[in-house]
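User: Sequence in, structure out. Go.
Assistant: Echoing your sequence, followed by the structure tokens.
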Amino acid sequence: MINILDKTIIEVKNLTKRYSLGSIGFVTFANDVRKLLNKWGIRLGIPNKSEEFLALDKISFSVKKGEVIGIIGANGAGKSTLLKILSRITEPSSGQASITGRVASLLEVGTGFHEDMTGRENIYLNGSLYGLTRKEIERKLPSIIEFSQIEKFIDTPVKRYSSGMYVRLAFAVAAHLEPEILIVDEVLAVGDAEFQKKCIGKMKKVSDSGRTVLFVSHQLNMIRNLCTRCIMLENGKIKHDGEVEETLRKYLSGSSDKKGIAISERTDRRGKNNYIVQDITFLGIEKNDRTILCGSDIEITVKVVSKIPFETNIQCAIAIFDNNGNILTDLSNFFTNDSLIPGKQNCFEIKCRLSEVNLNAGTYRYNCWLSTDIELEDHVLNAGTFIINEGNFFFTGKSLPLNKGSVLLNQKWIIST
């Protein structure tokens, strides 16, 4: 007897996607004019600056029914391009992707919604696009609205929704219309932590029911908690495909290659980039150098360049991870309500002081991002590393072995008889 879960539901063979650089938006008109003039013997002497970029380079893999696949990689690795091809949003340049079953995708905020229609009307629109009858949509409507938690705004045009409300409704629609394959991109990062947790729980239920999930995220703990297999992309190619922990270890070890590249030269960043992180330093306050001891005070300095200076409050965040990709803490002035308004300065520094840092001796990684109250400005993954050296944290001269944990806690032991 054949196990239905052994059925291959996605088959990707030699999938390639090429884009032309330097000609986006005018390639057709410019090339047509150039060809016409050339036919008439007129040479403009203007070089064609268009060059090809391989977003995906002959990748092949298969997915069985019920698998939950995490897809990771740096910005520009080809993750979103792959999902767009699998979602039939764009066509490959060559190769093929065979899919069996109905696909529901959540790739970008607002994708698949008509902005002048209300949330309720968009649910009906999306349901009909998935092939559901009106009765089927009406049966699912209450659970979709309840999950999205935007009942008060369900009859408001979605063009008035915030990005978070968009994501709530879009995920609720995609997850409740019972697709055979659910494809989710990093868009969940827009939602709050509570809603992210709710979405992960829903995706687990989807996979437990025998349906397939493809999930792209830079949040490795989400990949670890949800996925049964992980594919790592790098420069449009599959660098590794296998067990989750092994793939995450390869990804984290490979990310150390970037530590020799200055943050100012990193191109794999996201955001509007009106504010750009130029450099980040971790210094031990006592000696004012990079030698940081367990239990010492640390000053983190983030150097920022502003392309378009304007007076607004900036949110700066630094997430610190151990070498296994586990997030240890997320530092941000958002939590402390410290106002950071640079005024009209083109260059400025943001400083964060940490007292008696209780990290064990070892090497730690960090991400950094800047945002305003409106949108993300700059986000650099694997922005760098810093080292904590052994110190006299317990004032006994004894140290906690690194394999016993990354965090140190002040403690006092007593006996009561």
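User: And one key feature?
Assistant: Residues 66-255 form a domain with the Rossmann fold fold (CATH 3.40.50.300).
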